[in-house]
Amino acid sequence: MSPTDPWILRTEHTSYAVALDPSGRWAELSAWGPHGIETGPSPMQWSRRTHFLTPADAAPAEHLPQGLRAFTGADLIAHHPGGPRGSWYAFTGADQDGDQALRLHFDDELLGLRTTLHYQVVAGTDVIQRWTELTCTGDRELRLERFDSAAVNVPVDRARLTYLAGQWSQEFQLTQLELARGRFEMTSSQGVPGHAYAPWLAVQDATAPAHGPTATYGIALAWPGNWRISADAEPGGAVRVRAGRLPDQGAVRLAPGASLTTPVLACAFSPDGLDGLARVWHRYERVLAGERLLRPRKVLYNSWEATGFDVRATDQLELARTAAELGVELFVVDDGWFPGRHDDTGGLGDWYPDPEKFPEGFDHFIGKVRALGLDFGLWVEPEAVSPDSQLYAEHPDWVYRLDGRPATLVRNQLLLDLGRAEVQEFVLATLDRLLSSHDISYLKWDMNRPPTERGRPGLEPDRDVEYQDLDAAHVAGYLRVLDRLRSAHPQVTVEGCAGGGGRIEHATLARTDVLWPSDNTAPMDRLRIQYGYLHAHAAHTMSSWVTDAPGLFDPRPRSLAFRFVTAISGVLGIGADIRAWTERQREEAAGWIARYKQVRDVVHHGEVHLLNSPADPTCGLQFHTRDRDRVVVTAWSTGLLDGAPLVPGRPARLRLRDLDPAAGYLDQDSGTRYSGAHLMHAGLPYAWTAERDAELTVLVRT
């Protein structure tokens, strides 16, 4: 191939073309979109004339260091200790594996740095994974202040950015802004992705509709530690997005011969707007799940909201018996099952069943739960430790702290330094002991406090390389423990949680079965959380409980049906004190649980369409099998009622999508027959009332 010919990567439906700039110094995006986009002049083509800028500053570059890209934002800032900041690398070769993988090599001989850009197509999806490998090739140590995974260029003059923002109990709020010029940035320095922003971003042309046939570009960073994503609307009509780790100590040291590999940045494209992009991400996450996707997501009961820390075998068994009568398949004991855990001030770290709470023995208790036909699960928070625990008394050096400084308590607890090998081994031994000694098939891994004093006693910042990258060490330890846990106990279902949705990204998702999006289970609040979540993540990963919680942000009361339909749209769980439910409520709950079992294969394995939003009077989700023979619709009344039937008014309608217009579809409950054309043009009717505010519809192709 000639130096100007692009390298082309092909996903299931898209092409991604990369070429060298005319000077041969860096790689540029040539085209990204549906198959065939690479044929013709590049959408990223530009005049290459600059004023008060360098050509590299205006280029749609895939990755550039400070030095070459001096003004508009570099992806790599590297230097020798005490030396000038900057690198000037040049292209030195490429390796390509057909149209599925690509590696581009760039060297800076003076600095002693090799940069390799990696591209990998994920088979069966429209996702390309990108990451960067940095190797110190000289005989002097390097300091890396910025080392983004990749830069992504989108050819739009005025960008619409869609991102997921919020706070604890209000995560995953779908948020949009227009960026004509300037910079937008999201970060987390909390040692986890955090509740304020998800490491996910979508870019569209602001003149086009957000949903429907609109070219939509998305990125998601697989990193459960500190991170940042920035988007720059640059001169010449393009948006350039950069994403990567955020160094905890400001820089990372790279010794001679050592290499650093950045987190994976997943890049996705859909021609069908945010709705289409969501389906791309869902398929990708089903690939990440692998064989674990085939494991049915069982109906769960969690005892936390019913009993809190007051865990007693008798009360738990009463809840388990009631749950089994409803059709629940899995019973989980949450916080409070271990010694010293009567509130949030003690006990963490001493992970043994409390004999006072289980006087007949823990195994005897589990046996009684299982005799009811229920699987058994347990909550743990293995990264945390209480100051009054035996673990802390024996290993006070295992927590993050700064020598000579007081330790900050968050939620009355400290955080273990999971970057330490001995801490990893303790956590692994603890989890292995619990899972091997007791008949536990479900584990909820929680994490309720970020690292504050990020230091390791005995290390000196200027002398010890380890000190410079404690965030990466913690992430590596966390992922290693999860990997070992999955390998040793493949039958155990693992739920990921961090004070709700504080640690949700693809590295965690690839190693867990379900994730807990938020501690907020109030009906209207939860619907908004799940609506945002489903733009980035698949329904089979979304744990959702039915509770009696009142609204925190939207206090409008909603029915038990509303709560069940919301939870059925993900992985159904119950967290209410079901002992206090009336017989009528229990009968209704049993009916909903039975219906969930009938449709969960479609919800978890099917294609999803987001119908309207919680801001509209009627909101819904459409799930259908790939052959479109079965369609499941969950719908909610989210606005004001129209007064019908006392005054004139038509039922609300949800227009379905992507059906066969000539086919017939039978509503299994009402017996009504529709054509696909009717469902897509006129829509499913919903005559909402104060009592009837949600509905689950199952349509079968005839």
TrEMBL record:
SUPFAM superfamilies registered for this protein in UniProt: (Trans)glycosidases (SSF51445)
A GO term for molecular function: alpha-galactosidase activity
Domain of life: Bacteria
Keyword list, A-Z: Glycosidase, Hydrolase
Any single Pfam family the record assigns to this protein: Melibiase
Enzyme class: hydrolase
Domain Glycosyl hydrolase family 36 C-terminal: 621-698
Catalysed reactions, as listed in the record: Hydrolysis of terminal, non-reducing alpha-D-galactose residues in alpha-D-galactosides, including galactose oligosaccharides, galactomannans and galactolipids
Entry similarity comment: Belongs to the glycosyl hydrolase.
Name of the protein in its database record: Alpha-galactosidase
